[in-house]
Here is the input.
Amino acid sequence: MQHLSSNMREEDVVYEEVSTEDSLHRSGQGLDVEILESGESSIIFIPLCGSTAMLRFRPSILVILMLLVGPVFAKEQPNIVFIFMDNFGYGELGIYGGGITRGGATPRIDSLADQGTRLTNFNVEVQCTPSRAALMTGRYAIRSGNATVPITTGMYGLTQWEVTMAEMLSDAGYATGMFGKWHLGHTEGRFPTDQGFDEWFGIPNSTDESLWPGQLQFMSVVEENLSPYAVPEYIYEGRKGSTPIKIKIYDSVIRPEIDREITDRAINFMQRQAKEGKPFFLYIPYTQTHMPVVPSSEFAGKSGNGDWGDVLMQIDAYVGEMLDTLDELGISDNTIFVFTSDNGPEMLPGHNGWSGPWRGSYFTGLEGSLRVPFIMRWPGKVPAGRVSNEIVHALDMLATFANVAGAKVPGDRVIDSIDQSGFFFGNQEKSNRDGFMVYVGADLFGIKWRNWKMMFKEVERGTDHKRTFDFPRFFNLYNDPKEEYPLTKATAGHFWVRWPMGELLTEHSASLQMEPPIKPGTPDPYSPSEAKKQ
Ligand SMILES: [Ca+2]
Here is the structure.
């Protein structure tokens, strides 16, 4: 039983084989889910009020989306521009209650909401790397070995076996360009141009690393050559089929200006593709508003309200430039334009983002971590001015884009992505998703289902101790948006919600059993059949 928690001994564990139904019942009583292998069964490992029980069930409900549909060939393939902000909270944009209340107006992005559909319940994974892994693969990040930002694994990211959104769209005939932050691998074979992007400009990791070269101790460690990873982060330029080239060190001088260059290159990419007449997928994971949040010299002081307001104005202007470019090129009507974020707000003091009406920063399972702004515009296709509180997850973008692009979702693996095109097109009021697993790192913190959450764990801030509840906490998000009152009139009498949530959990657990997660740091080549033999 090598999977037992480090603080638990084999002899402390009580094993019990139970029916699926019984396991569902008990799964509503607090858990730290780990899937353990045992022949064809799955085992859920559940600490119960000081004692521990092993619940075993047979996966009777395997709704594996592996059977997900073949491609629906689109008559006309729309371009896709996908802006993915970094640590940009739910409350930042004017249209979400931010903008001027945050010190910087965002009129261009706000106007996108009038021209398209805005979601108030778009959800993501809660850290940079997992969120990007989920978006790119349509699979929970735990599956690809990217459940957390890399802390101890120098070699990380997506194995070549994963099929990314860029690879999928590339196979469907798209030109694919990425300009910005990857955070899915920084070693040979793990760069964006190894994962389906024709071209890439940006950083492999993250923006806090721009602070490293300014520290004497760090630079002396670099001199000492203590680790291949304790080195300055570079800005790269890459093309599919060749090794990316290091352009310059990403330091605090370049940090404020990098999004300017990302924007220029993104615009250049659109211009080139429009000339070629080829549909394109343009992925723009900006570096703002990850700390350090410092405006470009062009915007410094512009809001009169400090760095944050300046940066909001900057982001809005850059997005506006891209929208103008689409208009100038005459391709706005045939372009899906999405503005969203990878996770909830920055939490570092002095760089505090804003989660709007929700509680919590990134790295938590709270709504502030999960819900981010999301606006999609596709003139004539996606209803203009529509606002919806239906649940959509970043996971869903893969299958949705596959549908509109006539691309093919991989059929040989577990896919968590759900095609939401019918919902986005306004053909249906409801989305095709009722809920999802809430992970914080590799830890299953709980389940969100409709307006409810059943949480087994909680952490107030990403670096705090997490609390594990003996009895799960239930929150009615309509009555208690800040998740403060687990046992009130709003929740009492509603514990039935654990049953539909239990269904989701059972399906998820069974799928992890059937296709064990790839371990963090797994080198290429990875093959699931070889992994099973080990
Ligand atoms: Ca992030």
Observations:
- Residues 1-74 have pLDDT under 50 and may be disordered.
- The longest helix spans residues 307-329.
- The chain has 13 helices and 20 strands.
